[in-house]
Amino acid sequence: MNSQINQLAPEEFLRNPSFKKNCDLICIYRLDVLAEFKQYEEGIFDIEEDPHFYKKYVLYYSIAEESALTDFTYDKLVSVIADKKEFIDYKENPLVASQYSFAAKTFIKLPFLELPSHQGNLVSLRQQATEAVAEAGLNDTYSTIQQVTDANADEIIKEMIKNELANIQD
Fold this sequence. Notes:
59% helix
């Protein structure tokens, strides 16, 4: 593939030393259905991971996605990728052809595209973890783990094992 590209590239590009270093190649591949991706996955990764010459991105799409993209603009692409409902639908059914499936692949494969920023109240991971621990009824265990140091790790672990064994016998 690299030799074919070099044969097709304009001579003035090839003379420029930064061409190979700063050039990205985007390959677009059409699938009949998204499920076919598994058949081509290894070959696609081989192309993308080939370290010679250009950075390569393979952007694949299905016939159904192509149909969903009629009159699709960049603004619509940004709008779709920012839509939380579309994301949830895609997450539940990643092999269903949709505007979101195409938008997600496009933003993943084309690193120069900027994701829209979300203005909102983000819940800290610490708070989410604390709530999940409480919901699972593990506050005491979590509190014990927070007290572990190099000096007392063995003792705390022994105590936790002893407590678990006592609970099993009950």
